[in-house]
Amino acid sequence: MNAEERALIRRCQQGDELAFNELFRRYQSKVFSIVYHLIWTREDVEDVAQNVFAKLYFSIKTYNFQGAFAVWVERISVNQCFDFLRQKKRQKGTLELDAMSPEERNLALQPPRGSASNAEKSVISRQAAQRLLRQLNDDDRAMLVLKEVDGASIQELSQVFKISESNVKIRLMRARHKLRAIHEKSQEKDVLLTAPAARGGRT
After folding, report:
1. What is the pTM of this model?
2. CA of 150: how far to CAs of 23, 95, 165, 179, 186, in Å?
3. What's the structural domain count of the chain?
4. Structural domain boundaries, residue 53
5. What sign results for the dihedral spanned by CA atoms 76, 69, 32, 78?
């Protein structure tokens, strides 16, 4: 954390609304990215992200500068997502994450600029990754999202989840193995689904 951001946080702690607006601008993309990859549905993502910033606003006076502010934001984002998911489980009995419509998902993904074909390939690839991530449990998905999407370090993950760095590495390894197994299983299912059509074409 540089001196300029430290001063900005100090101003937020003193109730400076303009300072918090600037902090919101700096961390908006990070928060929405984390929440989107853990919650998925557009309306719920917006609600949970608002809850994250509300929590930041009312809790920022408790931030003691002992760790990186970005890690503090990540921890609050993940905890708010987990609170929301637990509430959904209590309401419905089982966790049901409704899929976005293709139009909504394409808007949310905001594919990079470039040729149409490259953008379409990017969207398809990211949608496939998201379908796989949905099948992981909340903890595994959160850790992979922070590591692979948000770019968090092992040390930062250790601080977010409050576990040792060696445990972070173990959990990441297990989560990746689970994801790989899910991917391989989905590929096998695709082969089985297309096999009858292929056999039918030869007769």
Report:
1. 0.67
2. 18, 24, 18, 18, 26
3. 2
4. 1-92
5. negative
More confident residue, 132 or 179: 179
- Tens digit of each residue's pLDDT (9 = 90 or more) over 105-154: 444 444 434 443 443 444 445 556 667 777 788 888 888 888 888 888 89
Contacts of 112 (CB under 8 A, 6+ apart): 118, 119, 122
CB 146, CB 78: distance < 8 Å: yes
Radius of gyration of the chain (CA): 20
Burial group, residue 13, by CB count within 10 angstroms (0-12, 13-18, 19+): middle
Question: How many CB atoms are located within 10 Å of the residue 48 CB?
Answer: 23
Could you tell me if residue 177 is inside a domain?
yes
Tell me, what's the pLDDT at 191? 53
DSSP state of 61: G
Taking CA 177 as the corner, what is the angle to CA 172 and CA 180, rounded to the nearest 5 degrees?
125
pLDDT level of residue 97 (50, 70, 90 thresholds) = very low
**121 shares a domain with 76:** no
Q: Per the domain annotation, does 65 fall within a domain?
A: yes
Do 80 and 162 fall into the same domain?
no
Query: What burial class does residue 109 get, using C-beta atoms within 10 Å of its C-beta: 0-12 exposed, 13-18 middle, 19+ buried?
Result: middle
Q: Is 82 among the domain residues?
A: yes
Spatial contact of 174 and 140, defined as CB atoms under 8 Å apart: yes
- Quick one: CA torsion of 184, 190, 195, 198, rounded to 10 degrees? -120
